[in-house]
Amino acid sequence: MTTTETVIRYLFLAAAACFVIGLHLMNSPKTARRGNLLSAAAMAVGIGATAVLLIAEGAITTTGWLVLLAGAAVGSAAGLYLARSVEMTAMPQLVSLFNAVGGGAAALLAVEHLLQAETVHVRETIPGGLDILIGAVTFSGSVVAAGKLQGLIPGRPIVFLGARALNVVLGLVFVGSTAWLVLDEGNLVAMLLLLVAATVFGVTMVLPIGGADMPVVISLLNAFTGTAVAMAGFVLGEVVLIVAGALVGASGAILTKLMADAMNRSITNIILGGFGTGDEAATADDSGGTVRSVSADDVAIQLAYAQKVVVVPGYGLAAAQAQHELASLAEILEGHGVEVSYAIHPVAGRMPGHMNVLLAEAQVPYPALREMDEINPDFPQVDVALVIGANDVTNPIARKPGNPMSGMPILDVDKARSIVVVKRSMGHGYAGIDNTLYSDPKTGMFFTDAKKGMVALAAAVRSFVA
To answer: How far apart are CA 86 and CA 227, in angstroms?
Structure first.
């Protein structure tokens, strides 16, 4: 090994260590930004070191460099544009598309290596087959998930006749084509068979999953992406790929398990699908309960004379982009001596940390954000629980057996002394069932767009406390 190669390997090792440290820093909102920057810097070092190694070895022709640089320029420009221009409400779709790109790229790495290598060993064909399988499933599954979240594909579970039988056949094809690939190293037909079967399975796996489970699906596909990258590392013999992929795969798997637990769902049950109704909202409450409508002035009086207010943000807040107006309202209340905090459910919004990112953008201090297990015991002492666009995560029916939400941990909003729900209509959440919180005698329904509602409440509260 030359001196250059030795230095490059040490740089790869340092980058892998930085990935681990960066992931650890992401444990806390206070240090997450530093963790992200450190991991990005480590990735930049890894890319730069790889380029130096390729130059030193003369492994790429001039044409190859032109293609490589053109691809890097186009990909970087597209990624930068999307990351800077995407709306916060569309962030889950963007993450899903990134998963698709990562999974597809990992699968192509294995295809290229198995086709181009002069001799292929079993130690390469086994992880290569797994890489193609997992990467292709991730690619097509993530594209379908992004389509569902964007509304291009109906969010409801889509099940067709013979779907489960088709999945069984695809499973047999996985086993058969992978074995064929191992026994006849680099066989093109076996590889194409595996690639097509895995791509079809990604589609049939995600189509039957309803919108309620989509945050968990995105997290699961993220774990698949990391696993596929780790497999690509085994195929190519690159330790940094193995470490980076294993970290993403392991962290994604842990997050998926935590989210599934928060929804009282097993991962197997989610993959089998059949829960949730997607994005279609009902237009009326058919629960038979009486709903009490309130005005901005009614709510403002409650808020102005409260000592303790807990805000429960949900997807409706994100959809209306009302985080800045909410922060302004909270600032007025805090200036009047009211204690304001925010209750964050693990699956609020459409992806993990969605509400945290949204409120951080509005400069809401991290200590004011409180997780479900931490805030729930305090609700009986809360004067006003202000629910903004959150539905299923506050539905008390989850405590009762015999319904699609039974057993799902929720925020105990109904135990507050008074509840105000800001909502545009009586539409259902993803679970597709009525929210009994709305007909609770303590609940007032403030029917409005979240952004307009926050502006109206801020003006009304200001007039009371001036």
So the answer is: 27
Distance CA 97, CA 93 (A): 6
Q: In this predicted model, what pLDDT tens digit does every residue of 345-354 receive, in sequence order?
A: 887 776 667 7
Catalytic residue among 131, 285, 392, 414: 392
| DSSP label of 35 | H
Whether 354 contacts 345, CB under 8 Å: no
pTM here is 0.73
In a domain, 311, yes or no: yes
For position 280, what pLDDT does the model report? Answer: 44
Gyration radius from the chain CA atoms: 25
Same-domain pairing of 222 and 80: yes
Amino acid (one-letter) located at 40:
A
Task: Clarify whether 383 is annotated catalytic.
Answer: no
CA angle 451, 452, 454 (to 5 degrees): 65
Which of 272, 307, 336 delimits the end of a domain? 272
Q: Are residues 263 and 409 in the same domain?
A: no
Mean pLDDT of the chain: 85
> What residue numbers bound the domain in which 313 lies?
296-465
How many other CB atoms are found less than 10 A from the CB of residue 76?
A: 10
CATH number of domain containing 408: 3.40.50.1220
Please give the tally of structural domains in the chain.
Answer: 2
Q: 410: how many CB neighbours lie within 10 A of its CB?
A: 22
Cα separation, 61 vs 284, in Å, equals 65
Under 8 Å CB-to-CB from 356, ≥6 apart: which residues? 29, 344, 369
